Every structure is written in C-alpha cells, then in structure tokens.
Amino acid sequence: MKPISRSAVGALALIVAGCQPLSNLGFDRRPVYITEPIDGSTRGRLLYATQDPQACAAWLTAAGLSFRPVADRSEGGYCIVTGAGNLIDAPRSSDPPLSPPRPMMACDLAAAVALWRRQSVEPAARELLGAEVRRIDHLGVYACRGVGDPVTGRPSAHAQAKAIDIAGFRLSNGKQITVERDWSGQGAEAKFLRRVRDDGCRLFGVMLSPDYNAAHANHLHMEMGRGGLCS
What global pTM score does this model have? Predict the structure, then answer.
C-alpha cells in the first residue's frame, strides 16, 4: 500500500472538520481581540467569534474596522459568494492596507487578515527588518476556478472569496519584499516571510507557501477554515 501524501491528509482533515458544527470541535469560546498576540487558541476562538455574519461584522467594528457588504455573486456551479464585503480601515489606522485595496472577501477571512497583519506582519517587520510595513500586495481573493486545474479541479476557496494570496510587502524604508524573490535564503527578508507564514499557520485553516509546491512559488495562500493544512 502506498503511503498517504501530506496533501491528501490535509484534504481529509478539511473534509472531516467541515462536516462538524463548530460547537462539536471543542473550540475555546473565550473572546478574541485584535490586540492579543496569536497563540494556539486564536484560530478556534476567531472561528467561533465570526461564524455568524452579524457577529463577524461586530467583531471588526470592535477592532476599529468595518466591513462594507457587497452584492452576492453567482457564476454558476460552485462559484457562489454570499455575505461578502470589503474590509475598511479606520481613517487614521496605521495598519498596512491591502493592495489592490478593498478586495471582496468573506467576513471571517477579513477578520483573520486584520488580526494577522496586526499581530504578525507588523511586529515581525519591526523586529526583523527594522521598518514598518506600508502596504501588503496580494494577487486576489475571488476567482471562479478549481484547485490545480481551473476547470476540472475541486472547488477552490477562492471561488467563494474565502482565500487570499499574498505576494509581497512594501516597507517604510522603500524596500519591497516579495515571496517569489525572497523566500529562499537565510537573510532577514526570508526570515520575515517564514515568520508570517508560521504565524498564519496558527490562525488560518490553510496556509500554503513555496514550501508546499511550485504553484505557490510567488505567494502565500491564506484560507480561513476549520482545517489544519500548513506548509
């Protein structure tokens, strides 16, 4: 018998977890705040806090952010987006904005991205790079496609605006860090990228980097959910 691949194990975990209500998964129900560092309980607590659309919007408001709803979208098949919106930063927020700005995304993904940039991206940049992050470049959120093959692949989380692909970071000192160029190596840039990936593994249900496969050579795939696939 052939050994089960890492990707197959991760996919099975996602399927099994997805069949259970949150109340049955043993998640910590304590409140989670954007001012708290990420730890082993953050993902479960955030999932529980944002599972209801109204509760999710309230969480973002309490964090000093807002979530502007957008019209539901359907392109047929599994490409259906409901309850999505745009993450809106406060006028004087110091959090680095996403570029392109305000992509359509699921509310729980917006909450996770907001917490990740506050408690991972910003402190990691100050510690390892001696600079502030001024902008986070991404490759998109919503895309009506499957995983691997756009037509025959299993449904992608992007098809429901539940995943974002992060390509790079622009710093206050004028430098630009990209996943494609800076992931490999032992320098501060590589250490920064691996730090934010590792922090993301404790926050997102799926966190994939160039270490996963060649398809992720130029971005970090971040997907909110109940699974636990990290690479």
Answer: 0.86
CA 42 to chain centre: 13
In whole numbers, what is the pLDDT of the chain averaged over residues? 87
List, as own/partner pairs, every contact residues 60-67 make where C-beta atoms lie below 8 angstroms and the sequence separation is at least 24, other chains included: 60/87, 60/107, 60/110, 60/111, 60/114, 62/33, 63/33, 63/34, 63/111, 63/114, 63/115, 64/34, 64/90, 64/93, 65/89, 65/90, 65/93, 65/110, 65/114, 66/90, 67/107, 67/110
**200/227 Cα distance (integer angstroms):** 13
Q: Of residues 102 and 15, which shows the higher confidence score?
A: 102
Sequence-distant (6+) residues with CB within 8 A of 83 are 53, 69, 72, 106, 107
- Distance from C-alpha of 56 to C-alpha of 115, rounded to nearest angstrom: 13
Nearest to 143 by CA among 128, 163, 123: 163
Over the stretch 6-42, which tens digit does the pLDDT of each residue have? 343 343 333 333 333 444 445 678 999 999 999 999 9
Burial 194-224 (b: 16+ CB within 10 A, else e): ebbbebbbbbbbbbbbbebeeebebbbbbbb
Strand order in the sheet with 66-69: 66-69, 84-88, 104-106
| Residue listed under structure tokens 């309490």 | 62
- 128 vs 22: CA distance, rounded Å: 36
Are the C-beta atoms of 69 and 48 separated by less than 8 Å? no
- The SS3 call for residue 110 is helix
